[in-house]
Amino acid sequence: MFDITIVGYGPAGITAALYAARKKLSVLLLGDFPGGEVRNSGEIENWPGDGQTDGLKLADKLVEHLKLHQEEVTIQQVKVTAITKNDATFITTDEHGKTYDSKTVIYATGRHPRLLAVPGEEEYKNRGVTYCATCDAPLFSGQEVAVIGGGNTGAEAVIMLQKIASKIHLLHLGEALPADAVLVQNFVNDPKVSIHYQAKTTKIAGGAMMESLTYADGKTGQEVTLPVTGAFVAIGAIPNTDPVKNLVALDKFGAIVADRYGTTNVPGFFAAGDVTDIRDAQIVVAAGHGCSAALSAGDYLSRS
Predict the structure, then answer these.
(1) Topology adopted by domain 2-112+237-303
(2) Rounded-to-integer distance, Cα 20 and Cα 32, Å
(3) Burial letters for 151-174: b for 16+ Cβ neighbours within 10 Å, e otherwise?
(4) What is the pLDDT of residues 167-218, one digit of tens each?
(5) What pTM, to 2 d.p., does this model score?
(6) What CATH number should be reported for the domain whose range is 115-233?
(7) What is the DSSP string of 137-179?
(8) What residues are annotated to the active site?
C-alpha cells in the first residue's frame, strides 16, 4: 500500500509528487499524459525563472525533475477510471482494471477546454488558436484577433487584448452578452472592439499560421470571413472528474470543491489545480496548489 496515490501527470500532480517525495513518503503517480495539458500550450512567458519557454519544453522539464525522485515515486502511465474508498483505504482503478491501494489520494487531473469542433481548429491549435488569453494574449501584439464566447471568460479575454491587439472581434451565439455588466462596460464603446451577435464559428483557415475565421450570421443567414490571425476560444472548460463524481463533492460546473490546502469533503482525499473550483486556471497556481495538497496529505498521514 502506498502512502499517497497522485492522479494527474501535470504541474499540480508533479509538484505534489516532488513535495511528497521530499518527505520520504511512498508515492504512486498515475497519469496518461506526461506534463499534462501544459504540453499543448504554445509560448509561455509567465512561468517564473524561465523568462520565455513553451509548453513542450516546460512539460519535459517537469517530468525530468520528477525522475530525480525515482526511489520515492512510482510512475504508471495509465488512465484512471475510478476511485473508491473502503474504510480507510482508497482503491484506484486504471483503464486495464488494475487496482492500487493507498492511505491518501491527491487528485490533480486538470480540465480540458471545450472545443469549437470546426474545421481548422485542431490544425491551427498553437498556430493562432488558443484557449488561454492570460497565457497567450501578449503573443498577438498589433494583430487582428477574434474572441469566441460572450461569457465572463470571453469578456476578460477582450479586456486583456484591448491594449495588445489592433482589432478585436467578439463572437457570441446569443443576442446579448451574458458576461457581467461591469466587465462589458470596459469595451462596449471601444471602437477597436466589434461585437458580433448570433455568430456561430464554422471554419478556421490559413497557411503555415492561422489567417482567417468564418462564422455564420444567424441574423442574415450569410457566412462572414474575418481576416484574423488569432482566435481565443472562451466557451468553457470541462473538469476531468468523471472517475470521482460519486466519491467527492463537486460544484455546479463539475469541479471538485477544495480549499486552498487541497482539502475536500472526504477525509484523506485531496485535490489540486484546475480540476478544482480554484479561481485562476494558471500553471503556476496549479503547481502551488499541488504543493499545498502534498503538505496537507503529509500532515493527514502524520495524524492518522
Answers:
(1) FAD/NAD(P)-binding domain (3.50.50)
(2) 20
(3) bbbbbbbbbbbeebbebbbbbbee
(4) 999 999 999 999 999 999 999 999 999 999 999 999 999 999 999 999 999 9
(5) 0.76
(6) 3.50.50.60
(7) GGGGTT-EEEEE--SHHHHHHHHHHTTT-SEEEEE-SSSS--S
(8) 132, 135-136
